Fold:
Amino acid sequence: MNKYDQEYKGEAVGRELSSARLVLFTLASGRSGTRYLADFFTKNITQCYSTHEPYFIPNNPTLFGKPIEWNARYNDNALLSVLERKCHFIASRMEPFYFESNHAFLKAFNRHAGTLLHNPGFIHLVRNPLLVAKSEFVREQAIRKARIPFVDYQSDTGEYLFRWALTGHEDLFQYYPCVFNRFQFYVLQWMEIEHRAMKLIRDNHWQDRVFFIDVDADLKREEVLKNMINFFELPHRSVFNMDLHRNKTPFIGPTIVTEQDKQEFRAIVRDLPDNYRQLLQRKPYSDCCWHTEVNELIT
Structure:
């Protein structure tokens, strides 16, 4: 049973968060089960304000789009006002627990979470990087084929960027001066997201505040979700509703990784900086069900 210390870490905004409120975020890439987990919380966890990606909720920024760019360019003058607004929203909730299942968290909030969040907890969702990259690539293709409006936003420098992705200006991408394709972009995004997750945990000494889930093996196992509930001491319904939403891309079948995808994955990870390459050799990644397959492509 995990107990949370009450050591104060925050600034003025952090003080507004009640010492009794546990604030939970997911540490995850897109296409890694955040929607499924959000539905589990909504249907089974009580006394908790639960949200997925908070579109159309006044004063609770989604963190997609501009905040991702501001974080990439270290434009804290613009970014902090958005993060503070989210913290104000969290502080205004009446429930003793707040949960947000949102893959924008590590894209926009990672550098300031240690300062602004008080009494946080994290659910670290990790899915096979090949499947994540292929699924994100296919999802973007489908969105663009459907001509959905406002999927791109204009950055402060006039560049048009995909709203739900990193910008490509983050430090890791600068190791690749040559042109790479969009699938490989999503491979690098997965690497950057996981690097941020581990740095966030390490720098803030939050190892005892994180519940790890190997998405491919365990996310849909009721026993694992019960362990997560016990870890955070969450109030819950006596009988779980496991009829949960699965966020499939419309008209697209199961995600299939081809031999060409594996070759492109191998080409991109071959030039990874050592600290990113070594990430996959250590826990928790070395215990994942897909580790042997992916490791063979790296070594």
